[in-house]
Amino acid sequence: MVSLLPHEQKMSVMHLLVRRHPSNTEPIKSKEELVFHCGFRRFRASPIFSQHTSADKHKMERFLRPDAPTVVSVYAPITFNPAGVLLFKQKNDGIQDLVATGSLLSCDPQRVTLKRIVLSGHPFKINKRSATVRYMFFNREDIMWFKPVELRTKWGRRGHIKEALGTHGHMKCVFDNQMRSQDTLLMNLYKRVYPRWTYDPYVPSSLTWFKREIIVDMDDLDME
Questions:
Q1: How far apart are CA 33 and CA 31, in angstroms?
Q2: Which residues form the Ribosome biogenesis protein BMS1/TSR1 C-terminal domain (predicted)?
Q3: Is the N-terminal amide bond of 82 cis, ω within 30° of 0?
Q4: Residue 120 in contact with residue 185, Cβ under 8 Å?
């Protein structure tokens, strides 16, 4: 039997610092349902993954990385440190595989997780320090909306949108140096993401693992 500390009966955004277990090699996607063992609690939820850095904004990860610690964010009852964490993935046959291990990082709904989206365009006409770009936008209104956003290229050029040309998504861009014809124009856009409210306190019991052995009749074997 245990007793709850103040506020431990309330729900909040929990951040768990975990590392991929070497015995599990299959890809684990973000927002995929997992079984959590956090402290004395067991529950199911679909978390989101993000990088573990010292910055105030953290980039979202689409998969659970095997080579670096990852922060797992999920809506769950408040739990205080220290608390061990085990993550399991339940298969269709009822067996739960250990995915990651770690500990409770913090309970902080103000932690910012950002999802990055990259828009790409191609140069249509290149001048000395400017270029006409197409295929990034397809109407004039979008170009004017994203005009303050900085541009970059795969070859390391930096620039910005100067003006829109016509009504079909062509635009004139200015760079710090001449752009090459084989280069690609990129624009990074960021959006804050939140974990889904998928908390489920019911966790079905895991089936006992057993080794499946196939017995072959000796009469069925072809003897040479």
A1: 6
A2: 1-193
A3: yes
A4: yes
* CB-CB contact of 49 with 42 (8 Å): no
Give dist(CA 129, CA 185) in Å, integer. Answer: 14
| Region for residue 26 given its phi and psi (left: phi exceeds 0; alpha: psi -120 to 50; beta: otherwise) | beta
Per-residue pLDDT averaged across 19-39, rounded? 90
Please report which confidence band the pLDDT of residue 9 belongs to, taking 50, 70 and 90 as the band edges.
Answer: confident
**Joined tokens for residue 123:** 């140069």
CA nearest to 152, candidates 116, 188, 115: 188
What is the rounded end-to-end Cα distance, in angstroms, of the chain? 65
**Per this entry, what is the length of the chain?**
224
Q: How many CA atoms lie within 13 A of 25 on its CB side?
A: 1
Q: Which amino acid is at 66?
A: P
Q: Residues 135-169: pLDDT tens digits?
A: 999 999 999 999 999 999 999 899 999 999 988 88
HEC string of 19-86?
EECCCCCCCCECCCCEEEEECCEEEEECCEEEECCCCCEEEEECECCCCCCEEEEEEEECCCCCCEEE
Look up residue 192 and give its two tokens.
């804050």
Tell me the whole-structure pTM to 2 decimals: 0.77
Task: Express each pLDDT in 68-118 by its tens digit.
Answer: 899 999 999 998 888 999 999 988 777 888 999 999 998 999 999 999 999
Q: Which residue has the tokens 């709904």?
A: 109
